[in-house]
Design a protein that fits this description.
- The chain contains 13 helices and 14 strands.
- It has 316 residues and is of the alpha/beta class.
- The protein folds into 2 domains: 169 residues, Thiamin diphosphate (ThDP)-binding fold, Pyr/PP domains (Rossmann fold, 3-Layer(aba) Sandwich), CATH 3.40.50; 128 residues, Rossmann fold.
- The strands form 4 sheets. It has a 5-stranded mixed beta sheet, sandwiched between helices. Strands 5-7-6-12 form a 4-stranded mixed beta sheet. A 3-stranded parallel beta sheet has the order 3-2-4, sandwiched between helices.
- Helix 8 links the parallel strand 6 and strand 7.
- The radius of gyration is 19 Å and the shape is globular.
Length: 316
Amino acid sequence: MSYELSKGLALREVFGRTVTELAETDQRVVVLDGDVGSSTKGDIFEKIHPARYLQMGIAEQNMLSVAAGLATTGLIPYISTFTAFAVVRPLDQIRVSIAQTRANVKITPSYAGMFTGSTGMSHIILDDLGLMRGLPNMVVIAPADDMEAAAALRWSAQYEGPVYIRLIRDATDRIFPEGFGFSLGPVVPIADGSDITVFSTSTQTPRSFAAVRILAGRGISAKLVHVPTIKPIDVAGIVNAAAETGRVFTVEEGAVVGGLGGAVAEVLSEHLPTRVTRLGLDDVYVASGSNAALLDVYGLSGQRVADQIESALLRG
């Protein structure tokens, strides 16, 4: 399949639309909102299905506990709030009431990663993938664009058990075509290459695709592999892609400790010892700023990723 970049919808918009559509055919679907529906686009669901839209207020720990309770009645609760309040604040409730019990709760907040820079440092969550993949029984998905996000949300309604789907606030580039499906587990090859293998995840993948094209113009042939499922991780897919080049880079708009970089390094150290260079946020709290400025400052724009990879290769 040949890929091209185009402008996609914001993943929070995809959340509102897709969960609303799911509720049309599945009466079990409900949304719990932490008083931010106009920001997360949970209010799209509220307008169509008001009786199944539960306003929980600014009480996120209680919201996650209520979601676990609703799941025991056969309902499928989806969480509508910011990532800071859906993952970090109620982590104990997620661990004890949802992950340990395998409750059928879908943790689907928006505002993950750096694209919340205007809201301030307290709202910028970079370690969500590490926190969630460390929980037994939790499925962790990080879609690349609006097409994959919609497909992952639809898939989640059919899966029995807890799921975390990483959603971004603002519109990002689209890389997948209309009708793109989602399969839990397998990595997705995006571009062929022979010099290095680049693993990327979430909405960083379209920017990594741009970086791979820049590198091609500099004579560096990079294989790009998108990793939508952080847990369960595709061990065979990662090992096989790494083996094709023998040199690996990981790129993510999040913490490399515990995130994709950590996961890939763990897989390869056990199954195919390979040199891995991790690009992302390393032991840092991100400053406030515009999306473009933050991507440049922290080295995650397509241009900056390409520059870092080239510099690493020149160093040997």
